[in-house]
Write a structure and sequence with these properties.
Helices cover about 35% and strands about 20% of the residues. It is built from 38 helices and 54 strands. The longest helix is centred in the last third of the chain and has 27 residues. The relative contact order is 0.05.
């Protein structure tokens, strides 16, 4: 058979999911036959045996069928639907609503023809038994019915009927996500596997080799197996031989074999080229001194050497002279770079050691970083797969490529394999070998390929595990159990079953009426292809002593693979141990349900036992995950090997080294040494973990048999093991310990409530935890909250209200309300007069309950009114005026920069919104959709903008044609809606909010980046110069940056009341990402070519108002900074009483109005409250709550003395001012208020930003409600790990914040960072790239 796509043979599997292959093959008119599994074999010998892979190959090689769409966008959509079907239709709760919605205006899922998307989704629905579930989804039902009546689908339906073993909930295949390589084409992909010959291959290398092989086969490309032999000190020919054999063991078949040293002559030429072009220089700076210079971002003294001097040094190095040995060649990149890998890295060093391949021909050798891009490029590699730990080196990689004029290729990242209780460093593994703690590099405890194979890992099991991991970039610490579980799937169906008993721990059974004989039975009960073995039956049988410790006379037991026997006599020693048993054969009894199951061996001279040693191994490292500061030598397990002598099945004499077997009720074993009859050397079997128990745990003897449990019991999921009490606890001991715990808990709470020092509290908390640990050891249970003794209830004296407050959570009042009510009753009991106090002021302190305080402040200060739609709020004039002041300032400043205001519609079409999928994915869950007009469904849902990129940029593409149209700088003041979230908080987190969003386009990156930081500076000024709030200017991490952007800058504020950061405003550089998506191009005036513009977006929102309240508010209410206060000065008439004459009253009011006019004429925003139905005291409180910066008190005496009294809101300081100096003095006072407010907040923030390189201190400072400045590598996985591991586990106060730390920003002002500083993440060993501000955040 042959076809246009070189398919030599094709088989379609019998299960329903193989409809995918059948549909693709039928569409391409390729003949096929029915088999167990889908598979196509190409004329080149390559095979594809996965339904998705088969269909994808046919679609890619038969583009005329349009099965992969008609363009790149449609191809991407097809892949998205394939992922959707696997992720969302294979679950127990399939997402049919989304599918139904997408099909509302479509006949096919993608484009106007049937595609793989239709094949896969249709098949998944059918294979998972979802046909009955789609009836209520009109559009989905129509689509499914339409396809089902097409000829090719009819053939799939009739050919592949539902198999009996296929249930409605098909389990997913253990296949990980393999990321599509960018620019990859069938037949043109070249990948490489470049190990260093300095040790044995370990499992991490195996992942690299098998991943590269996956892409080699998937794209029918080539795999280069290249030895990285750039360092003669480390290279050894022996290791090359071993690695080559290991690659063959892995069944990886390279197309090309090479050495980096093959290209040494070319590298010398290119290095000399860079030197002569002034892009590299010779350097003799001592290593330690250079390390410090790089940390401080300072240049080497040799950086500006002349080319002649650099060539002189180069020649000295090539000659291997004494001076040459002191020098190296450095690339002249950027010694000030944030990325340490760009700070003039070493290209060449001088070494006199002979090279295994080139001998003493060379005295200079390239570094891996210099050699790798050269060899990758010249050898034709198209995609260089590297682990994420090399991410920082990517810029350096491409710099070398560009400077040397080499062919550019793709660098593609995947996560390294991290395993628990394991070290993978060759240096650390070598230490174990050198110390004699292991037998060698192939020790079964080692993670080397040879080690795990010797432990019992099969190549197929390892391959399946690697394939299941895919090429994900997510970094996780993998348990060994998962790997062994994959291996078990491979060996369980083929491992022959044998029997053994523990030597010197057996009990003889004498069975009457049995004649000695042998029978041939299958080695595997479910697989006859494995062959047969001889089993001997006799009257003398040995069983394990552990199985019969509680055996009783008259009991029926089952000898596995023989039958039932009845125990007639049990003989025991003086210490009650069973020594011998007599039994009668009872084969007629076939009831095996409740009998004890015993493994056994017959004693016969015709088939002597095989002396056997079972070897069990434990982990070499006792700690699951080693932290960056951990010395692995401190966690070395010195006793990791346990040998058990056994009497083995006579058939074990036929085993060969490498055979994997199962000893009944003991597990799987691999034969490490065969039995030698001549010398009687035992057969050595190494225990193979099966993934059900910890791979490093002991497992020396079978558990005593307790008979078969019911199937129902077996079906129950395993529960977490409970703690086992170490002693029998008396009730008196338990009660005493409960009392101690309660007393200590009360002590801790009292210390916390009195704001005791953190160190003092920590000491007492540790005592509490130790008491709880003793309780668990004593009782086997955790100390429950309900065990705490309760203080006598004061509510009983408060009547029925006290009873209401004491109700449990499940009743009318929630826990929060009960707590509040109880507190109120306590206050009323202790201070009955409190009930008479006006509710004008705040009823809770900021320190006591920040959330309730905030809610009261914004409502009582008339900032917010609640709306009947959750998450939406009414901005009252008091708050909107602040926003207007911010708006006026910023609008004026950006207009100076040439920015013009516009307005774009609030509604976004679905097509526009989904055009930039990377960008919109972050907003997708928050998008609100309009689906109806009156009672009529819209033809297509319309989104309400969550942001405006997708609304504005199609217009930018129309308006920008020439360089003369640039720059284009537009801004709009508008509202946006982001719907999907929990726990809205006014100003801080709302479903609708106000903001400005600026969008600009430039011809050059430099112009665009300059604007990013110009705007960022304006945002800083808003916070610091208007709102008196200090901020940290910085850059967001890759994880936190704006979706779809190149980088994001931010200003971050600090809320000292709860120790949280708050993102103040952001300015993003979008690069050309959006211009490429929306085709925003201009004609370059010089080249006349079309070029994509560089874009920015930037925004600040009404969140600023919430930050203002939280930073400056106190227990009296708001404190509004003068520059944004709608009323800067409030004038209050004083001394007005019922006895005051009307003329005097009028004089006071007139004087107040006079002062207001003077102040207003002087440019001060002033007002007077002359309402006569409120007292002066009430007004004082009212404006204190509202936060008016300055209060003027004016009474009869003040008028007489031509003066007035001012009271500052921020510190209550009173000042008497003469009327003639009113404007000047008040302006100075307002300026002073702003400065003092800023300084107070700045001092608090500076004191609460703690710099630390230590993880324990990091967590300590986080719990102390501080922000932390720590070294960080920048990896997203590390950031996730930091957040997870820093989450609070406060044992005393459940109201304390428990979220982990997230990155707030990478401050633009960086402390000095040493080159050897390690990332703060406890799971990371990489060097830090910069200091990053971490903390809990809104």
């Amino acid at each position: 058979m042959s076809s246009a796509c070189n398919v030599e043979s094709a088989t379609v599997g019998k299960k329903l999911r193989s409809s995918i292959s059948l549909l693709a093959l039928e569409s391409a008119s390729i003949p096929w036959s029915l088999g167990d599994n889908s598979c196509i074999k190409l004329s080149s010998g390559t095979t594809f045996n996965n339904d998705i892979a088969v269909a994808r190959y046919i679609a890619r090689t038969k583009p005329d069928l349009k099965l992969y769409g008609e363009n790149v966008l449609q191809s991407t959509e097809v892949d998205a639907w394939i992922s959707f079907s696997q992720k969302f239709l294979g679950s127990s709760n399939p997402d049919l609503s989304h599918l139904n919605q997408q099909l509302s205006q479509r006949t096919f899922l993608v484009g106007y023809n049937v595609t793989l998307a239709d094949f896969v989704v249709w098949t998944t629905i059918r294979a998972n038994g979802l046909e009955d579930s789609i009836g209520s989804h009109t559009n989905l039902n129509r689509w499914y019915d339409f396809l089902s009546h097409q000829s090719v689908f009819l053939k799939a339906s009739s050919t592949l009927l539902k198999s009996t073993d296929e249930t409605k909930t098909q389990s997913k295949e253990d296949v990980g996500k393999f990321i599509e390589l960018p620019g990859a084409e069938i037949g043109k992909v070249v990948v490489r596997f470049p190990p260093e010959a300095s040790g044995y291959l370990h499992i991490g290398h195996a992942k690299a080799a098998l991943l590269n092989q996956h892409y080699q086969t998937h794209f029918q490309g080539k795999l280069i197996f290249r030895f990285d032999d750039t360092n003669p000190v480390k290279e050894k020919a022996d290791f090359e031989k071993v690695i080559t054999e290991d690659v063959a063991l892995l069944q990886v078949k390279p197309d090309i074999f090479s050495h980096t040293s093959d290209n040494f002559p070319l590298m010398l030429e290119l290095a000399e080229k860079l030197i002569k072009e002034g892009k590299a220089y010779g350097d003799d700076t001592p290593a330690e001194e250079m390390k410090k210079l790089r940390e401080q971002k300072l240049p080497s003294k040799n950086r500006d050497n002349s080319i002649e001097k650099n060539m002189e040094i180069w020649k000295e190095m090539q000659a291997g002279t004494e001076r040459g040995l002191q020098c190296c060649i450095r690339a002249k990149i950027d010694y000030k770079s944030v990325n340490g890998c760009l700070r003039d890295p070493t290209m060449y060093r001088c070494k006199l050691e002979p090279h295994p391949k080139t001998g003493t021909k060379y005295k200079v050798y390239p570094t891996y970083d210099f050699a790798c891009p050269i060899v990758d490029s010249v050898e034709g590699v198209t995609h260089a797969l590297r682990t994420t730990e090399y991410h920082d080196r990517d810029d350096q990689y491409y710099w070398f490529i560009e400077q040397m004029g080499l062919r550019r290729l793709h660098v593609w990242e995947y996560s390294r394999l991290n395993l628990t209780n394991t070290v993978l460093s060759k240096r650390k593994l070598a230490w174990f070998v050198e110390q004699g703690l292991v037998e060698g590099w192939d020790d079964p405890r080692f993670p080397t390929v040879r080690g795990i194979i010797r432990r019992g890992m099969t190549i197929e099991g390892l391959r399946q595990f690697i394939v299941a991991q895919g090429s994900s970039r997510s970094i996780v610490n993998m348990e060994w159990d998962k790997i062994w579980a994959f291996n078990r799937k491979v060996i369980d169906p083929i491992a022959p079953r044998y029997t053994s008993v523990i030597k010197d721990a057996t009990v003889p059974i004498t069975i009457s009426g049995v004649k000695e004989k042998s029978e041939s039975i299958p080695k595997h009960p479910k697989n006859n292809d494995i062959g047969t073995k001889t089993v001997w039956f006799s009257s003398n049988v040995l069983i394990d002593k552990a199985d019969v410790v509680d055996i009783q006379e008259g009991e029926i037991v089952t000898l596995i693979n023989w039958g039932n026997v009845k125990i007639s006599k049990v003989e025991k020693s003086e210490n009650k141990e069973v020594t011998a048993i007599s039994a009668n054969l009872n084969l007629e009894n076939t009831d095996f349900k409740k009998t004890k199951k015993l493994t056994w061996l017959s004693k016969t001279d015709k088939a002597p036992f095989v002396p056997t040693i079972a070897v069990y191994y434990e982990y070499l490292i006792t700690k699951s995950v080693l932290g960056k500061d951990d010395n692995f030598k401190d966690y070395v397990n010195k006793k990791t090997k346990n040998e058990v002598e056994m009497l083995g099945d006579p058939e074990l004499k036929n085993l060969k080294v490498g055979d994997i077997i199962q000893l009944q009720r003991r597990g799987f074993f691999r034969c490490d040494k065969v039995f030698e009859p001549e010398t009687n050397k035992p057969c050595v079997l190494i225990s193979v973990p099966d993934g059900h128990t910890k791979a490093g745990g002991k497992s020396t003897e079978p558990k005593p048999s307790k008979g078969n449990e019911s199937k129902k019991a077996k079906a129950k999921p395993a529960k977490e093991p409970t703690a086992i009490p170490t002693t029998e606890a008396s009730s008196q001991e338990v009660d005493k310990l409960k009392g101690e715990i309660t007393e200590q808990g009360n002590k801790v709470r009292e210390l916390k409530s009195s704001n005791a020092a953190k160190e003092t509290v920590d000491v007492e908390v540790n005592k509490l935890l130790e008491l709880k640990k003793r309780y668990k050891d004593l009782t086997g249970e955790d100390f429950a909250a309900g065990n705490r003794s309760k203080k006598p209830s004061k509510e009983k004296k408060a009547g029925n209200q006290g009873k209401e407050a004491a109700k449990p959570k499940k009743e009318k009042q929630g826990k929060k309300e009960v707590s509040k009510e109880s507190s109120r009753l306590d206050d009323e009991h202790n201070n009955p007069e409190r009930k008479k106090i006006s509710r004008l002021g705040l009823e809770v302190t900021k320190e006591e309950n920040l959330g309730e305080w905030y809610s009261q402040v914004i409502t009582k200060a008339e900032m917010i009114e609640y709306h009947d739609v959750s998450g939406c709020y009414i901005f009252r004039p008091w708050s909107f005026a602040i926003w207007e002041h911010i708006k006026d300032f910023f609008d004026g400043e950006i207009k100076k920069l040439g920015v013009k205001n516009v307005y774009f519609p609030i509604f976004v079409s679905k097509a526009a919104l989904e055009r930039e999928k990377t960008h919109i994915s972050d907003f997708a869950p928050e998008v609100a959709w309009v689906t109806k007009s009156g009672d009529t469904d819209l033809a297509e849902p319309i989104a309400i903008r969550p942001t405006s990129e997708t609304v504005m940029y199609p217009s930018y593409a129309k308006w920008i044609k020439s360089h003369r149209d640039l720059p284009l700088k537009l801004n709009q003041w508008n509202n946006v809606v982001r719907w999907e979230f929990k726990h809205p908080q006014p100003f801080i987190r709302t479903r609708e909010f106000l903001w400005q969003e600026g969008h600009s386009a430039f011809a050059s990156r430099q112009e665009a980046e300059e604007e990013v930081f110009t705007i960022l500076e304006l945002y800083r000024r808003i916070y610091e110069e208007l709102l008196a709030i200090p901020v940290v200017k910085g850059r967001k991490t890759e994880k936190e940056k704006f979706a779809g952007g190149d980088f994001t800058t931010t200003v971050e504020a600090f809320i000292d009341a709860n120790g949280r950061g708050a993102q103040g405003a952001t300015s993003h550089h979008l690069g050309q990402n959006f211009s490429k998506m929306f085709d925003i191009v201009y004609e370059d005036p010089e080249t006349k070519d079309k070029a994509f513009v560089f874009q920015n977006s930037w925004g600040i929102s009404t969140r600023t108002l919430g930050v203002l309240c939280l930073v400056h508010g106190d227990n009296k209410g708001l404190i509004i900074p003068p520059k944004v206060a709608d009323i800067q000065v409030i004038v209050i008439p004083c001394g007005i009483s019922a006895n005051l004459a009307d003329s005097q009253r009028k004089e006071i009011y007139d004087s107040c109005q006079k002062y207001v006019k003077i102040l207003k004429d002087g440019g001060i925003r002033a007002d007077c409250d002359n309402r006569d139905n409120y007292t002066a005291g009430w007004k004082f409180n009212h404006y204190e709550v509202k936060g008016v910066p300055l209060r003027v008190e004016l009474g009869p005496k003040d008028i007489k003395n031509n003066q007035f009294v001012t009271v500052r809101r921020d510190n209550a300081q009173k000042t008497t001012i003469s009327m003639k100096d009113a404007v000047e003095c008040i302006k100075k006072l307002l300026d002073s208020i702003h400065v003092d407010m800023f300084n107070k907040a700045k001092k608090s923030m500076d004191e609460r930003i703690i710099r630390t390189d230590n993880w324990d201190n990091f967590r300590k400072q986080l719990e102390a409600k501080n922000l932390i400045l720590s070294p960080f590598c920048g990896a997203t996985s590390c950031e996730d790990h930091i957040k997870a591991k820093s989450a609070s586990e406060d044992p005393v106060d459940p109201r304390a914040p428990s979220m982990g730390a997230k990155s707030l920003c990478i401050p633009l002002e960086q402390p000095s960072l040493k080159d050897d500083t390690i990332c703060i993440s406890p799971a990371c060993e990489k060097n830090a790239r910069f200091y990053t501000l971490f903390g809990r955040s809104y």
